[in-house]
Fold this sequence. Notes:
The chain is an alpha+beta fold. Helices cover 47% and strands 14% of the residues.
Amino acid sequence: MRIMDFSLDPDLVALRKSFADFIDREVRPREEELSAGLSDPRPDFLPWYAAAKEIVKKSAEAGFYVAYMPSEYGGQDLPTLGMTLLVEDAAASGLRLAMAAVAPPNPAGPTPLLLQLPDHLRAQWVPPLVRGDKTMCFALTEPDAGSDAQSIRTSAVLDGGEWVLNGHKHYITNAGEADVAVVFAVTDAEKRAAGGITAFLVPLDDSMRGRTNWNISDSHPGELIFDNVRIPEDHVVGEVGMGFFGAMSFLNAGRAFIGAQALGLGEWALRAASDHVKVRTAFGKPLAKFQGVSFPLAQSHADLESIRWLVYRLAWLVDSGADPLSIMGDASVVKLQATERAYQVADRALQAMGGQGLMREGPVERVLRHLRMLRVVEGASEVQLLVISKTMGF
Protein backbone atom coordinates (compact mmCIF):
# COMPACT_ATOMS: atom_id res chain seq x y z
CA MET A 1 0.00 0.00 0.00
CA ARG A 2 1.35 3.42 -0.97
CA ILE A 3 0.89 6.06 1.73
CA MET A 4 0.65 9.77 0.89
CA ASP A 5 3.23 11.79 2.81
CA PHE A 6 2.82 15.56 3.03
CA SER A 7 5.81 16.15 5.31
CA LEU A 8 8.85 18.07 4.08
CA ASP A 9 12.24 16.45 3.83
CA PRO A 10 14.44 17.42 6.83
CA ASP A 11 17.02 18.85 4.43
CA LEU A 12 14.41 21.27 3.06
CA VAL A 13 13.39 22.25 6.58
CA ALA A 14 17.04 23.01 7.38
CA LEU A 15 17.38 24.97 4.13
CA ARG A 16 14.41 27.17 5.08
CA LYS A 17 15.99 27.85 8.46
CA SER A 18 19.29 28.85 6.85
CA PHE A 19 17.46 31.13 4.42
CA ALA A 20 15.48 32.75 7.24
CA ASP A 21 18.76 33.46 9.05
CA PHE A 22 20.15 35.01 5.86
CA ILE A 23 17.09 37.24 5.50
CA ASP A 24 17.36 38.43 9.10
CA ARG A 25 21.12 38.96 8.89
CA GLU A 26 21.55 40.53 5.45
CA VAL A 27 18.19 41.76 4.18
CA ARG A 28 16.20 43.10 7.12
CA PRO A 29 18.80 45.65 8.32
CA ARG A 30 19.23 47.01 4.78
CA GLU A 31 15.48 47.30 4.33
CA GLU A 32 15.01 49.12 7.63
CA GLU A 33 17.72 51.56 6.60
CA LEU A 34 15.90 52.45 3.38
CA SER A 35 12.26 52.31 4.51
CA ALA A 36 12.05 55.84 5.91
CA GLY A 37 12.05 57.35 2.43
CA LEU A 38 8.93 55.47 1.35
CA SER A 39 6.65 57.98 3.04
CA ASP A 40 7.81 60.72 0.66
CA PRO A 41 5.24 61.75 -1.99
CA ARG A 42 7.66 60.58 -4.68
CA PRO A 43 10.01 58.09 -3.06
CA ASP A 44 13.46 57.62 -4.57
CA PHE A 45 13.80 53.99 -5.61
CA LEU A 46 17.37 54.25 -6.93
CA PRO A 47 18.89 53.31 -3.54
CA TRP A 48 16.56 50.30 -3.49
CA TYR A 49 17.81 49.12 -6.87
CA ALA A 50 21.40 49.43 -5.65
CA ALA A 51 20.55 47.55 -2.46
CA ALA A 52 18.82 44.80 -4.46
CA LYS A 53 22.03 44.26 -6.43
CA GLU A 54 23.93 43.92 -3.16
CA ILE A 55 21.43 41.32 -1.91
CA VAL A 56 21.68 39.36 -5.17
CA LYS A 57 25.46 39.09 -4.80
CA LYS A 58 25.28 38.10 -1.13
CA SER A 59 22.56 35.55 -1.76
CA ALA A 60 24.53 34.07 -4.66
CA GLU A 61 27.58 33.73 -2.40
CA ALA A 62 25.42 32.05 0.26
CA GLY A 63 24.03 29.61 -2.31
CA PHE A 64 20.37 30.67 -2.32
CA TYR A 65 19.99 32.92 -5.37
CA VAL A 66 20.15 30.24 -8.08
CA ALA A 67 20.03 27.10 -5.95
CA TYR A 68 17.92 25.47 -8.70
CA MET A 69 20.85 25.48 -11.15
CA PRO A 70 23.18 22.45 -11.52
CA SER A 71 26.05 22.30 -9.03
CA GLU A 72 28.61 22.29 -11.85
CA TYR A 73 27.49 25.85 -12.65
CA GLY A 74 27.39 27.09 -9.07
CA GLY A 75 23.88 26.01 -8.07
CA GLN A 76 22.79 23.41 -5.52
CA ASP A 77 20.73 21.09 -7.76
CA LEU A 78 17.79 22.14 -5.59
CA PRO A 79 14.51 20.54 -6.70
CA THR A 80 11.56 22.65 -7.73
CA LEU A 81 9.87 22.10 -4.36
CA GLY A 82 12.92 23.40 -2.53
CA MET A 83 13.11 26.56 -4.63
CA THR A 84 9.35 26.99 -4.26
CA LEU A 85 9.78 27.07 -0.48
CA LEU A 86 12.48 29.73 -0.71
CA VAL A 87 10.31 31.89 -2.96
CA GLU A 88 7.39 31.56 -0.55
CA ASP A 89 9.54 32.47 2.44
CA ALA A 90 11.09 35.48 0.71
CA ALA A 91 7.63 36.83 -0.13
CA ALA A 92 6.22 35.99 3.31
CA SER A 93 8.95 38.02 5.01
CA GLY A 94 7.22 41.21 3.88
CA LEU A 95 10.57 42.69 2.87
CA ARG A 96 10.81 44.30 -0.56
CA LEU A 97 14.47 43.36 -0.89
CA ALA A 98 13.89 39.71 0.05
CA MET A 99 12.64 38.80 -3.42
CA ALA A 100 16.04 39.86 -4.79
CA ALA A 101 17.57 36.99 -2.82
CA VAL A 102 15.96 34.39 -5.10
CA ALA A 103 16.10 34.43 -8.88
CA PRO A 104 12.71 32.89 -9.73
CA PRO A 105 10.19 34.12 -10.56
CA ASN A 106 12.29 37.16 -11.57
CA PRO A 107 13.87 36.42 -14.98
CA ALA A 108 16.94 38.51 -14.08
CA GLY A 109 18.52 35.27 -12.91
CA PRO A 110 19.71 32.57 -15.32
CA THR A 111 17.13 30.31 -16.92
CA PRO A 112 17.99 26.61 -17.32
CA LEU A 113 17.38 27.22 -21.02
CA LEU A 114 20.91 28.65 -21.14
CA LEU A 115 22.30 25.18 -20.54
CA GLN A 116 21.30 24.46 -24.14
CA LEU A 117 23.81 27.00 -25.46
CA PRO A 118 27.03 25.95 -27.20
CA ASP A 119 29.86 25.24 -24.75
CA HIS A 120 31.76 28.50 -25.26
CA LEU A 121 28.65 30.67 -24.79
CA ARG A 122 27.59 28.66 -21.77
CA ALA A 123 31.01 29.23 -20.23
CA GLN A 124 30.89 32.93 -21.09
CA TRP A 125 27.44 33.76 -19.75
CA VAL A 126 26.18 31.23 -17.19
CA PRO A 127 28.83 31.69 -14.44
CA PRO A 128 28.49 35.51 -14.19
CA LEU A 129 24.70 35.20 -14.21
CA VAL A 130 24.88 32.61 -11.43
CA ARG A 131 27.18 34.87 -9.38
CA GLY A 132 24.90 37.86 -9.88
CA ASP A 133 27.64 39.79 -11.68
CA LYS A 134 25.33 40.05 -14.69
CA THR A 135 21.58 39.81 -15.21
CA MET A 136 19.34 38.78 -18.08
CA CYS A 137 15.77 39.13 -19.27
CA PHE A 138 13.26 36.95 -21.10
CA ALA A 139 12.04 38.78 -24.21
CA LEU A 140 8.85 37.18 -25.52
CA THR A 141 5.93 39.63 -25.14
CA GLU A 142 5.20 42.15 -27.91
CA PRO A 143 2.66 44.94 -28.44
CA ASP A 144 0.51 42.59 -30.59
CA ALA A 145 1.38 39.31 -28.85
CA GLY A 146 0.80 38.92 -25.13
CA SER A 147 -1.16 35.89 -24.00
CA ASP A 148 -1.09 34.61 -27.60
CA ALA A 149 2.70 34.30 -27.61
CA GLN A 150 2.82 32.30 -30.84
CA SER A 151 1.68 35.44 -32.69
CA ILE A 152 4.95 37.32 -32.15
CA ARG A 153 6.22 39.34 -35.12
CA THR A 154 9.89 39.79 -34.24
CA SER A 155 11.82 38.06 -37.01
CA ALA A 156 15.27 36.57 -37.42
CA VAL A 157 16.81 35.95 -40.84
CA LEU A 158 20.10 34.16 -41.44
CA ASP A 159 22.45 36.30 -43.52
CA GLY A 160 26.10 35.47 -44.18
CA GLY A 161 26.71 33.55 -40.96
CA GLU A 162 24.75 35.99 -38.79
CA TRP A 163 21.15 36.29 -37.69
CA VAL A 164 19.50 39.64 -38.34
CA LEU A 165 16.82 40.50 -35.78
CA ASN A 166 14.01 43.00 -36.28
CA GLY A 167 11.16 43.59 -33.89
CA HIS A 168 9.74 45.25 -30.80
CA LYS A 169 9.37 43.68 -27.37
CA HIS A 170 7.60 45.30 -24.44
CA TYR A 171 6.59 44.61 -20.82
CA ILE A 172 9.96 42.88 -20.43
CA THR A 173 11.01 42.55 -16.80
CA ASN A 174 14.59 43.81 -16.22
CA ALA A 175 14.87 45.15 -19.78
CA GLY A 176 16.48 48.34 -18.52
CA GLU A 177 19.25 46.58 -16.57
CA ALA A 178 19.86 43.26 -18.31
CA ASP A 179 23.24 42.51 -19.85
CA VAL A 180 21.80 39.84 -22.12
CA ALA A 181 18.37 38.66 -23.28
CA VAL A 182 16.82 35.45 -24.44
CA VAL A 183 14.86 36.77 -27.42
CA PHE A 184 12.15 34.81 -29.21
CA ALA A 185 11.79 35.46 -32.92
CA VAL A 186 10.05 33.93 -35.92
CA THR A 187 12.43 32.01 -38.19
CA ASP A 188 9.72 30.24 -40.23
CA ALA A 189 6.54 32.26 -40.68
CA GLU A 190 4.56 29.23 -41.88
CA LYS A 191 5.45 26.89 -39.01
CA ARG A 192 5.53 29.54 -36.25
CA ALA A 193 4.92 27.78 -32.88
CA ALA A 194 5.09 24.36 -34.60
CA GLY A 195 8.80 24.62 -35.32
CA GLY A 196 9.18 28.19 -36.56
CA ILE A 197 10.02 30.19 -33.43
CA THR A 198 13.64 30.28 -32.25
CA ALA A 199 15.24 31.51 -29.02
CA PHE A 200 18.39 33.62 -29.36
CA LEU A 201 20.96 34.84 -26.87
CA VAL A 202 21.33 38.57 -27.54
CA PRO A 203 23.88 40.73 -25.66
CA LEU A 204 22.18 44.06 -24.99
CA ASP A 205 23.35 47.65 -25.19
CA ASP A 206 21.51 50.92 -24.65
CA SER A 207 20.75 51.32 -28.35
CA MET A 208 18.32 48.39 -28.02
CA ARG A 209 16.48 49.70 -24.95
CA GLY A 210 13.22 51.57 -25.37
CA ARG A 211 11.11 53.34 -22.78
CA THR A 212 10.20 52.05 -19.34
CA ASN A 213 6.66 50.65 -19.03
CA TRP A 214 5.51 52.14 -15.71
CA ASN A 215 2.95 49.84 -14.16
CA ILE A 216 0.89 49.38 -11.00
CA SER A 217 3.61 47.53 -9.07
CA ASP A 218 7.03 48.75 -7.93
CA SER A 219 8.77 46.58 -10.55
CA HIS A 220 8.67 48.33 -13.90
CA PRO A 221 9.35 46.46 -17.15
CA GLY A 222 10.62 48.02 -20.35
CA GLU A 223 10.90 47.84 -24.12
CA LEU A 224 13.56 46.30 -26.33
CA ILE A 225 13.90 47.44 -29.95
CA PHE A 226 15.78 45.34 -32.50
CA ASP A 227 16.56 47.23 -35.69
CA ASN A 228 18.71 45.04 -37.94
CA VAL A 229 20.59 43.74 -34.92
CA ARG A 230 23.15 41.19 -36.05
CA ILE A 231 24.26 38.29 -33.84
CA PRO A 232 26.50 35.30 -34.63
CA GLU A 233 24.88 32.21 -36.07
CA ASP A 234 25.75 30.10 -33.01
CA HIS A 235 23.77 32.31 -30.60
CA VAL A 236 20.75 30.01 -30.84
CA VAL A 237 19.41 28.68 -27.55
CA GLY A 238 18.66 25.02 -28.19
CA GLU A 239 17.63 24.18 -31.75
CA VAL A 240 16.48 26.45 -34.54
CA GLY A 241 12.67 26.49 -34.63
CA MET A 242 12.25 24.89 -31.21
CA GLY A 243 12.29 28.03 -29.07
CA PHE A 244 8.59 27.97 -28.28
CA PHE A 245 8.79 24.38 -27.06
CA GLY A 246 11.86 25.25 -24.99
CA ALA A 247 10.02 28.05 -23.25
CA MET A 248 7.06 25.81 -22.54
CA SER A 249 9.30 23.11 -21.03
CA PHE A 250 10.00 25.32 -18.00
CA LEU A 251 6.50 26.74 -17.75
CA ASN A 252 5.23 24.35 -15.07
CA ALA A 253 8.06 25.12 -12.64
CA GLY A 254 7.51 28.81 -13.33
CA ARG A 255 3.85 28.45 -12.36
CA ALA A 256 4.94 26.88 -9.06
CA PHE A 257 7.25 29.83 -8.38
CA ILE A 258 4.57 32.41 -9.22
CA GLY A 259 2.13 30.50 -7.00
CA ALA A 260 4.66 30.44 -4.17
CA GLN A 261 5.21 34.19 -4.45
CA ALA A 262 1.45 34.80 -4.31
CA LEU A 263 1.17 32.45 -1.34
CA GLY A 264 3.95 34.20 0.56
CA LEU A 265 2.57 37.68 -0.12
CA GLY A 266 -0.86 36.52 1.04
CA GLU A 267 0.66 35.07 4.22
CA TRP A 268 2.36 38.36 4.97
CA ALA A 269 -0.82 40.39 4.36
CA LEU A 270 -2.92 38.11 6.56
CA ARG A 271 -0.36 38.18 9.36
CA ALA A 272 -0.18 42.00 9.25
CA ALA A 273 -3.98 42.31 9.34
CA SER A 274 -4.32 39.75 12.14
CA ASP A 275 -1.79 41.57 14.29
CA HIS A 276 -3.63 44.84 13.65
CA VAL A 277 -7.15 43.68 14.53
CA LYS A 278 -5.98 42.06 17.76
CA VAL A 279 -4.79 45.39 19.19
CA ARG A 280 -6.95 47.96 17.38
CA THR A 281 -10.13 48.65 19.34
CA ALA A 282 -13.57 49.98 18.40
CA PHE A 283 -16.61 50.36 20.60
CA GLY A 284 -14.66 49.14 23.59
CA LYS A 285 -13.22 45.89 22.26
CA PRO A 286 -10.59 44.62 19.76
CA LEU A 287 -11.65 44.53 16.13
CA ALA A 288 -10.92 40.80 16.13
CA LYS A 289 -13.96 40.24 18.35
CA PHE A 290 -16.29 41.41 15.58
CA GLN A 291 -17.30 38.61 13.22
CA GLY A 292 -17.48 41.11 10.38
CA VAL A 293 -13.70 41.41 10.79
CA SER A 294 -12.66 37.95 11.96
CA PHE A 295 -14.69 35.88 9.50
CA PRO A 296 -13.14 37.38 6.34
CA LEU A 297 -9.69 36.79 7.83
CA ALA A 298 -10.65 33.21 8.68
CA GLN A 299 -11.69 32.77 5.05
CA SER A 300 -8.29 34.13 4.05
CA HIS A 301 -6.57 31.52 6.19
CA ALA A 302 -8.59 28.79 4.47
CA ASP A 303 -7.75 30.24 1.05
CA LEU A 304 -4.03 30.30 1.78
CA GLU A 305 -4.02 26.69 2.94
CA SER A 306 -5.68 25.63 -0.31
CA ILE A 307 -3.09 27.61 -2.29
CA ARG A 308 -0.25 26.05 -0.32
CA TRP A 309 -1.05 22.46 -1.17
CA LEU A 310 -1.82 23.22 -4.81
CA VAL A 311 1.58 24.90 -5.14
CA TYR A 312 3.51 22.20 -3.30
CA ARG A 313 1.80 19.46 -5.30
CA LEU A 314 2.69 21.11 -8.62
CA ALA A 315 6.32 21.42 -7.53
CA TRP A 316 6.27 17.76 -6.53
CA LEU A 317 4.81 16.77 -9.90
CA VAL A 318 7.57 18.65 -11.73
CA ASP A 319 10.23 17.00 -9.58
CA SER A 320 8.69 13.57 -10.11
CA GLY A 321 9.44 13.83 -13.82
CA ALA A 322 5.82 14.03 -14.94
CA ASP A 323 5.26 14.73 -18.63
CA PRO A 324 5.10 18.55 -18.93
CA LEU A 325 2.08 18.41 -21.24
CA SER A 326 0.18 16.12 -18.86
CA ILE A 327 0.43 18.57 -15.95
CA MET A 328 -0.09 21.79 -17.89
CA GLY A 329 -3.66 21.91 -16.59
CA ASP A 330 -2.41 21.50 -13.01
CA ALA A 331 0.01 24.37 -13.58
CA SER A 332 -2.79 26.60 -14.86
CA VAL A 333 -4.94 25.75 -11.84
CA VAL A 334 -2.08 26.86 -9.59
CA LYS A 335 -1.52 30.13 -11.47
CA LEU A 336 -5.24 30.90 -11.46
CA GLN A 337 -6.08 29.95 -7.89
CA ALA A 338 -2.92 31.28 -6.26
CA THR A 339 -3.00 34.74 -7.81
CA GLU A 340 -6.77 35.26 -7.65
CA ARG A 341 -7.20 34.01 -4.08
CA ALA A 342 -4.07 35.69 -2.73
CA TYR A 343 -5.28 38.98 -4.18
CA GLN A 344 -8.57 38.52 -2.31
CA VAL A 345 -6.59 37.79 0.85
CA ALA A 346 -4.64 41.03 0.49
CA ASP A 347 -7.82 42.97 -0.28
CA ARG A 348 -9.51 41.67 2.88
CA ALA A 349 -6.38 42.51 4.86
CA LEU A 350 -6.40 46.08 3.59
CA GLN A 351 -10.10 46.39 4.43
CA ALA A 352 -9.52 45.12 7.97
CA MET A 353 -6.76 47.68 8.48
CA GLY A 354 -8.92 50.58 7.31
CA GLY A 355 -7.13 53.84 6.55
CA GLN A 356 -3.77 52.41 7.60
CA GLY A 357 -4.08 49.75 4.94
CA LEU A 358 -4.23 52.45 2.25
CA MET A 359 -0.95 54.08 3.26
CA ARG A 360 2.10 53.65 1.06
CA GLU A 361 4.33 53.06 4.06
CA GLY A 362 1.89 50.47 5.41
CA PRO A 363 2.38 46.71 5.19
CA VAL A 364 -0.40 45.84 2.72
CA GLU A 365 -0.81 48.47 0.00
CA ARG A 366 2.29 47.42 -1.96
CA VAL A 367 1.39 43.74 -1.65
CA LEU A 368 -2.09 44.36 -3.04
CA ARG A 369 -0.66 46.17 -6.06
CA HIS A 370 1.87 43.44 -6.74
CA LEU A 371 -0.73 40.69 -6.49
CA ARG A 372 -2.96 42.61 -8.89
CA MET A 373 -0.10 42.51 -11.37
CA LEU A 374 0.41 38.76 -10.86
CA ARG A 375 -3.15 38.12 -11.99
CA VAL A 376 -2.10 39.38 -15.45
CA VAL A 377 1.58 38.57 -16.01
CA GLU A 378 2.86 35.11 -16.93
CA GLY A 379 -0.53 34.31 -18.43
CA ALA A 380 -3.68 36.17 -17.40
CA SER A 381 -6.38 34.39 -15.40
CA GLU A 382 -8.60 34.12 -18.45
CA VAL A 383 -5.83 32.31 -20.34
CA GLN A 384 -5.49 29.86 -17.45
CA LEU A 385 -9.22 29.17 -17.67
CA LEU A 386 -8.83 28.55 -21.39
CA VAL A 387 -6.05 26.01 -20.76
CA ILE A 388 -8.03 24.32 -18.00
CA SER A 389 -11.13 24.08 -20.18
CA LYS A 390 -9.10 22.43 -22.94
CA THR A 391 -7.78 19.82 -20.51
CA MET A 392 -11.41 19.09 -19.67
CA GLY A 393 -12.13 18.34 -23.32
CA PHE A 394 -14.08 21.51 -24.08
